Amino acid sequence: xxxxxxxxxxxxxxxxxxxxxxxxxxxxxxxxxxxxxxxxxxxxxxxxxxxxxxxxxxxxxxxxxxxxxxxxxxxxxxxxxxxxxxxxxxxxxxxxxxxxxxxxxxxxxxxxxxxxxxxxxxxxxxxxxxxxxxxxxxxxxxxxxxxxxxxxxxxxxxxxxxxxxxxxxxxxxxxxxxxxxxxxxxxxxxxxxxxxxxxxxxxxxxxxxxxxxxxxxxxxxxxxxxxxxxxxxxxxxxxxxxxxxxxxxxxxxxxxxxxxxxxxxxxxxxxxxxxxxxxxx
Length: 281
Description:
With 281 residues, this protein is mostly helical. It has two domains: 5-100, Winged helix-like DNA-binding domain superfamily/Winged helix DNA-binding domain (Arc Repressor Mutant, subunit A, Orthogonal Bundle), CATH 1.10.10.10; 104-280, GntR ligand-binding domain-like (Four Helix Bundle (Hemerythrin (Met), subunit A)). The protein is built from twelve helices and two strands, in the order ααααββαααααααα. Residues 1-29 are annotated as: Disordered. This is FadR/GntR family transcriptional regulator.
């Protein structure tokens, strides 16, 4: 077997020892809890760099022996780790660690969300709620910390203004996404940046879907975004929070209208309406 021998050893740290079912008596616990403990143990090892990318994991039977659990429990735990994008399994071979950083983990999280949205368009509405939770706090924090937003926010606004003058709806939608992501990136929180960067494609899909519902002109839409930016610069956190809340609430309504409209089409065409409409743009 190739790869660091550390992959074989459960007790790498006190925290890991507490989390992992490395004692024989642990087999009396519920299988689901054992599975979760094993997943948590290997996640900690991978993110800490003790199991770097390329490390070959032990065989499932050997891991089961080390943790004193059934091979079925180990198989389920490995499936979870693979779903999270941390390991890769091949038939007849031991699993290999393929990611060891937070960015990679969040990338697999975004893929999971994307799959949910593809299977059921209603998840797009839930994504709008995630945006509401995050962006309301973001604009309030930016306003209360001196009203300073990153240069990317202004560039996005300038792009929106130019697209509005040119009547370029697709270009406007792209800059619209850039504006919201740039606001989030203006907050000094790298984990939040990684999360929103990974959700960028999904946010773009949502905005393009909502843009297909007849509503205000591009000029009015630009002024709405510019107004949010001015409130941030003025340091009026409550007003900025209220303005972006109204903006996202309206967009969520447009997404629901688009979903409902596609659901009325024949042959079940509405099942993944937002995905299809966004790809047509």
